[in-house]
Write a structure and sequence with these properties.
Number of domains: 1
Strand order of the largest sheet: 1-2
CATH architecture: Up-down Bundle
Helix content: over 70%
CATH topology: Rhomboid-like fold
Structural class: mainly alpha
């Protein structure tokens, strides 16, 4: 897929990739080692670090998702984003896809800080640095797993569940097998993605169910709106003309008028049918709207939960520092 095709199919994915690469190039141009950046350089460019992130710089929860520790780290995450993004973004929509990535990245970083903080309290760990889009990408991968489980299609194609499980499994096993990998960040991102994707999937299922339930049966639709005609008694041409003239004069219509009894009945039946059809559509439309809003509501609740989580760890750190002083 070319850059032009990717930009058209998955614009947010394209912009994320450009931001990853652009930030890395800016680092290198300012003198940062492309393969082994220093701790000072990573802190300067927005890495996640417990004393800073859980102190007065919570923005690092987001900035660290765009920062990578070396060229290989960038290439690995860039390929994963390219692979997952071109499928997930058309499936979930650009806005929801971006929200999914950011929340999964934040969830991964928060879990990393939570684990680090408790290991410090237990005397088994110390503050460290973390960076990379892995948490957000794991969230996207987990969301695709749910989509495959619920058989949600994109462009008529259903995802292969076994392949996705295999890819996610390799990433998790690799994280535990190789030292220095942010396992908590991967797990936190994946769990966040699972929760959000469940809201997507449930909402999708319900919208499809409502749409199928309210699709009219052609035979029923025909019988329901069939026109009823008025049949006048048969008579000679002379009698018919006289009767029509007598009828028109009685009801006050001009003989030259284009009015016809059949058209009046048709108009009445059609108007009644239209009103009936519109009234039946109100409830399904409201129901579909509710299910469309469900993923956004879930993501809002997750965001509120993350704010509370950050505040809780922040307060614990302040209490410990006061006790030490």
């Amino acid at each position: 897929m070319t850059i032009q095709q990717l930009l058209k199919t998955a614009p947010v994915t394209t912009l994320l990739l450009i931001s990853f690469i652009g930030l890395f190039i800016m680092q290198v141009l300012t003198g940062v080692d492309a393969n082994n950046p220093s701790t000072e350089a990573l802190l300067k460019w927005g890495a996640n670090a417990l004393p800073f992130t859980m102190g007065d710089e919570p923005w690092r929860l987001v900035s660290s998702a765009f920062l990578h520790i070396g060229l290989m780290h960038l290439l690995f995450n860039g390929f994963a984003m390219y692979f997952f993004g071109q499928i997930a973004e058309p499936m979930f929509g650009s806005a929801k896809f971006l929200a999914l990535f950011l929340l999964a990245a934040i969830g991964g970083n928060l879990l990393n800080n939570y684990v680090t903080w408790h290991s410090i309290l237990e005397g088994t760990g110390q503050p460290g640095l973390s960076a990379g889009a892995s948490g957000g990408i794991m969230g996207i991968g987990a969301a695709l797993l749910i989509a495959a489980l619920f058989k949600i299609s994109v462009n008529g194609m259903v995802l292969n569940l076994k392949s996705l499980i295999f890819i996610m499994g390799i990433n998790l096993v690799y994280g535990f097998a190789v030292p220095g990998i942010d396992n908590a960040g991967h797990i936190g991102g994946a769990v966040t993605g699972l929760v959000i994707a469940l809201a997507f999937a449930v909402a999708y299922r319900q919208r499809m169910k409502i749409a199928l339930q309210n699709t009219p049966n052609p035979a029923t639709y025909k019988d329901r709106y069939q026109t009823t005609y008025i049949n006048f008694p048969a008579s000679s041409d002379t009698d018919s003309s006289a009767n029509n003239e007598h009828f028109n004069n009685d009801v006050g219509f001009d003989n030259n008028s284009s009015f016809h009894p059949d058209s009046a009945v048709n108009s009445h039946v059609n108007t009644h049918a239209n009103h009936s059809h519109l009234s039946e559509q109100k409830t399904p439309t409201k129901s579909i709207l509710i299910w469309q809003l469900l993923p956004w509501l879930v993501m809002l609740l997750i965001s509120i939960g993350f704010v509370w989580w950050w505040q809780d760890i922040h307060d614990q750190i302040l209490q410990v520092l006061k006790t030490i002083e």
